[in-house]
Amino acid sequence: MGSLDPSSEMSLTESGFEPGKRNFLQLTDKDGEQPRIASDESGTAGSSGLDDSSQERFIGPLPRDCTVGCSSDYSSPSYSYSSILNKSDTGYVGLVNQAMTCYLNSLLQTLFMTPEFRNALYNWEFEESEEDPVTSIPYQLQRLFLLLQTSKKRAIETTDVTRSFGWDSSEAWQQHDVQELCRVMFDALEQKWKQTEQADLINQLYQGKLKDYVRCLECGYESWRIDTYLDIPLVIRPFGASQAYGSVEEALQAFVQPETLDGANQYFCERCKKKCDARKGLRFLHFPYLLTLQLKRFDFDYTTMHRIKLNDRMSFPEELDMGPFIDVEDEKSPQTESCTDSGAENEGSCHSDQMSNDFSADDGVDEGICLDSASSTERVLKPKSSLTFELFSVMVHSGSAAGGHYYACIKSFSDGQWYSFNDQHVSKITQEDIRKTYGGSSGSRGYYSSAFASSTNAYMLIYRLKDPSRNAKYLDCDDFPEHIKHLVQREKESEEQEKRQREIERNTCKIKLFCMHPVKMMAMMENKLEVHKDKTLREATEMAYKLMELDGVVPLDCCRLVKYDEFHEYLERSYEGEDDTPMGLLLGGVKSSYMFDLLLETRRAEQVFQPYKPGEVMVKVHVVDLKTDTIAPPVSIRAYLNQSITEFKQLIAQATELSAETMRVVLERCYNDLRLLYVPNKTLKAEGFFRSNKVFVESSESPDHQVTFTDSLLWKLLDRHGNTIRLFVSLPVQSPGTNRTICQKVGGDTEECSEGSKGNRNSVEAILEESTEKLKNLSLQQQQGSSTSDSQKSSDTSDFEHIESPSPSQEPDSSSVSAVVAVDNRELENRIRVASGGSDGGAYSDPETQFPGEERSDSEVNNDRSTSSVDSDILSSSHSSDTLCNADSGPIQLANGLDSHSITSSRRSKANEGKKETWDTAEEDSGTDSEYDENGKSKAESYYLYFRAEPYAQEDGSGEGGQKCVLVHVDKRITLSAFKQNLEPFVGVTSTQFKVFRVYANNQEFESVRLNETLSSFSDDNKITIRLGRALKKGEYRVKVYQLLVNDAEPCKFLIDTVFAKGMTVKQSKEELMPQLKDQCKLDLNIDKFRLRKKTWKNPGTVFLDYHVYEEDINISSNWEVFLEVLDGPEKMKSMSQLAVLTRRWTPAQMKLEPFQEVVLESSSVEELKEKLSEISGIPLENLEFAKGRGTFPCDISVLEIHQDLDWNPKVSTLNVWPLYICDDGAVVFYRDSTEEPMEQSEDERNELMKKESSRLLKTGHRVSYSPRKEKALKIYLDGGPVKDPGQD
């Protein structure tokens, strides 16, 4: 691509254009200036004070005729750089919408286009010594207006203005009413302009006066007061009317139309001393220079009880004659007097649907002032020409009452042209576009016409009085005051600096930079390199050198930048001989993001950098030594994809000094996929090499070369290496195995390290020591039989990984190994039982009974983390060995399946060869698996999977003083059952007497119970907690028992963790619970004085009868939860046809809720419920009303809401239909006496009760809904920002 010489006389063909084809031209900057059209066209408002340079039209999509509020860029199919960044061809600058600040932008543009306001603002001079410019609202408005007038940008930010309001970023996300903003901003300006020439500017421009009067129709006496206003609110549709006013004139006429006070609304006349018919109304005394009309389009629908927007059509004239509205009262009574008493009647104040709060009624000043000769002149009608107003701003709202968008249609007083100011877009519009903002539809004006009308319509109108003596023009730049000229110069310099900075940013390459720091723990450091495109590679290297803080660590000439792929950890290429090449050329130009990164590579002084050529692949080579069973850290080499395996072996031999003739190379393409590279002439690409690869090499004279790869020691070592995980296991404090450190060495003896133990070991410990050694020797035989070796997870930064493996000298058959395991386990149990029987009182005497020292996990003790019965059902249906249940988000299922995909050889299929996996349906349903088969033999696997444990001292010291930890290296394909049996020597009891809990984030624990499942869902450094307690057998379920306390502040209290069995009756489970409750909870209960019932989250449900059988009458699942409820008397529930309802009386006269009482119904009849409630309360049946409670038990509700918010006395005859749906026990029903009136309260008493209720409901965790969230009030802070309450959260 070459540049075209504009002075050349060559033809297009000679210049390189191809005829008949599409040729592309690229317009670029010349000498830092944007491309522009040379012809001088007048497309801007030159008389608006804009400088000549702003009148240049930049290349870009030209505007087209479009609807109001739409700029050309909205409809243009393409954009250009200049059209986006440079000023609109209208010559006006837009305002950027921060988020939802369109209402602010509309008002600011209207004020800017008001000459009198803009000029007055320019005449005000800011004194920096007196105020901070950041918090000065007039100063920031002054700066904004100057930028709107002189900036060459397409749109400018309003953040400086909003910051002066004291707003933070959250305010940008709050949409407010533009009329409310106008009032608040004017108030703030008046406060800031006190004691200045502009102190009365707002009143001079926008304030008018009106008289609010009441005239007696009998004596003519008139009481009145004078109010001031900044805008006139005009009703769109009168209250209760089906038709809206058709025009602004019609609405103004209705505004001043008096109403007659008669009948019950008669007015008490001070002169007549009696109530008389009177006429009440408003009269305009004075109109402001700038007349603001608010069209009240937002209303409240009392039918739906929602805010609505009235989209009815209301026309407005371009010129409005306000002469007829000065005085519409034709009756002149000679007896008219004013009320001079300061306590004058306030009945003359306006109605809410006529006057807004914008009328600042200064009663203390204006009320009771008589009309003297001076003021009476105001009542004289002026010539109509002096009261003709010209429309120049229409603020439009598009949307509904819930929200929408504001923009402004404004007429320039310079050229009379209308423009649409829609945030950053400014475009020309026509009178037809203005008429479209009238609203409404083409149909008749019916009551529902608003619903089908356009939602885009005028909301605020601003007129200016046509008075040549007062009408001002915009100040031109040459006429600016001196202080404004200085400010313009500063803003221009700032804008130029910003433009230069933006140009630099546009030419800056930003790319991720990495560096393996030679000192900081050899960690890969990451940063972002920002370098100009014209900087050379040498300069970029110096910048990266400083950025990575290598000064004084490595010489600069020992560093270089290379192309790097972080994802694949791949060095793509180096840049030899390109030190003087610009970075923009090396990186392929300036881009928002790159598909690659840079690495700052370092070397030692004696080393030489290796060149990295494009097309090479990186290979991490791990050397395997079968003699020592070790896998070395990786050595990185580079190869080509078209190299053969033979050439690749030669390359490895040079790097590792191994023999290429006896070398075996194994490629690990992905997890579970090991491929032996044995075809000499096959290329690396054909074998599946990619950018970054991992291989294992072994070179020795071992006979292992002659064995099939999947049966070789090399495969077994690599297989174990890939599947071994490291787990941190916390042992119980009571564990005998914690009194000594056991270091299991495969192929060797057990190391026993005494840690301060004193005295002789007891018999249990001696037996455990002997049994541990036997188990280890047995493990050795199993390992030899399966040729599975020890492994320890390797990392790239470790030195050498010591992997211990036995020599395959003895290979007992699998059946003999299984027999030894089973016999040894039973022998261990029996010896422990005999040894501990005398001293421990038979604590281990029966492994089938509950372990007396059973511990609870944190999640069991804390009932807030408990699983619901609903969640338990979900858990029981899962085949995952672990499921973390979160009370807030529900159960989180964990991935459990083994990764079975394999291209050459599957580790799982090989590991499970000869092993039978069975799933018993009952075991699945019960949520656990038995450790014993049908013949009572242990289900220990015949195929041994690697397990090695060693003591571990926790870094945080939490293991001190009792609890010990074990670091376990284990093959994750081992089942939970085998894992527990391997832990027996360290825990000190058999696997049936302890439980395994997996520890999740935030120290949440959940028990792993599926013994037939593997540890495949576990990963490196997972934590496990061992707790003493009997493990579940087939058909058993672990159950959490909670006490139901219906009248307590916390109705759900955790009691114990127990076990229920399939086929057990409720009565039998209660009998087993009684001694446990007495021992652990100090609850001495009679079997007839408590019941069990269903628990769903915190809601009580079905009452379980004594003869119900688990799994037959009652569905049960793992980690089930049940309520225990202590009864006051004998059990009333005898049959499943009965219904137990919890009732609570509401007494409005005392503003009080009585305690719960249970009512047992024989049927679902509403009549029976009301009879029972009448019987226990004494309320006559005809006066009794009831309502169903809402939400979670105990269905708490504020006493300030309950009387109105509940659905009292539903018109149904049975309880099991809508809207009640009471079909199960435990439903909450409130009832009351319909003749009882709520207690009368003062405002202070109500506020006090509100605070109490808020505190009560927050403590119980229930939502406080009687104080609904209010829309955030619009405020402008004159002191720079809101003052936060120190007690506020």
Automatic annotation (TrEMBL):
<dbReference type="GO" id="GO:0005829">
    <property type="term" value="C:cytosol"/>
</dbReference>
<feature type="compositionally biased region" description="Low complexity">
    <location>
        <begin position="778"/>
        <end position="797"/>
    </location>
</feature>
<dbReference type="Pfam" id="PF00443">
    <property type="entry name" value="UCH"/>
</dbReference>
<feature type="compositionally biased region" description="Basic and acidic residues">
    <location>
        <begin position="910"/>
        <end position="919"/>
    </location>
</feature>
<feature type="region of interest" description="Disordered">
    <location>
        <begin position="833"/>
        <end position="935"/>
    </location>
</feature>
<dbReference type="InterPro" id="IPR001394">
    <property type="entry name" value="Peptidase_C19_UCH"/>
</dbReference>
<feature type="domain" description="USP">
    <location>
        <begin position="93"/>
        <end position="466"/>
    </location>
</feature>
<feature type="compositionally biased region" description="Acidic residues">
    <location>
        <begin position="920"/>
        <end position="933"/>
    </location>
</feature>
<feature type="region of interest" description="Disordered">
    <location>
        <begin position="778"/>
        <end position="818"/>
    </location>
</feature>
<dbReference type="GO" id="GO:0004843">
    <property type="term" value="F:cysteine-type deubiquitinase activity"/>
</dbReference>
<dbReference type="InterPro" id="IPR045578">
    <property type="entry name" value="USP47_C"/>
</dbReference>
<feature type="region of interest" description="Disordered">
    <location>
        <begin position="1"/>
        <end position="56"/>
    </location>
</feature>
<feature type="compositionally biased region" description="Polar residues">
    <location>
        <begin position="1"/>
        <end position="14"/>
    </location>
</feature>
<dbReference type="Pfam" id="PF25985">
    <property type="entry name" value="Ubiquitin_USP47_N"/>
</dbReference>
<dbReference type="InterPro" id="IPR050164">
    <property type="entry name" value="Peptidase_C19"/>
</dbReference>
<dbReference type="Pfam" id="PF19718">
    <property type="entry name" value="USP47_C"/>
</dbReference>
<feature type="compositionally biased region" description="Polar residues">
    <location>
        <begin position="41"/>
        <end position="52"/>
    </location>
</feature>
<dbReference type="InterPro" id="IPR038765">
    <property type="entry name" value="Papain-like_cys_pep_sf"/>
</dbReference>
<feature type="compositionally biased region" description="Low complexity">
    <location>
        <begin position="805"/>
        <end position="818"/>
    </location>
</feature>
<dbReference type="GO" id="GO:0016579">
    <property type="term" value="P:protein deubiquitination"/>
</dbReference>
<feature type="compositionally biased region" description="Basic and acidic residues">
    <location>
        <begin position="853"/>
        <end position="863"/>
    </location>
</feature>
<dbReference type="GO" id="GO:0005634">
    <property type="term" value="C:nucleus"/>
</dbReference>
<dbReference type="InterPro" id="IPR028889">
    <property type="entry name" value="USP"/>
</dbReference>
<feature type="region of interest" description="Disordered">
    <location>
        <begin position="330"/>
        <end position="357"/>
    </location>
</feature>
<feature type="compositionally biased region" description="Low complexity">
    <location>
        <begin position="866"/>
        <end position="882"/>
    </location>
</feature>
<dbReference type="InterPro" id="IPR018200">
    <property type="entry name" value="USP_CS"/>
</dbReference>
<protein>
    <recommendedName>
        <fullName>Ubiquitin carboxyl-terminal hydrolase 47</fullName>
    </recommendedName>
</protein>
<feature type="compositionally biased region" description="Polar residues">
    <location>
        <begin position="335"/>
        <end position="357"/>
    </location>
</feature>
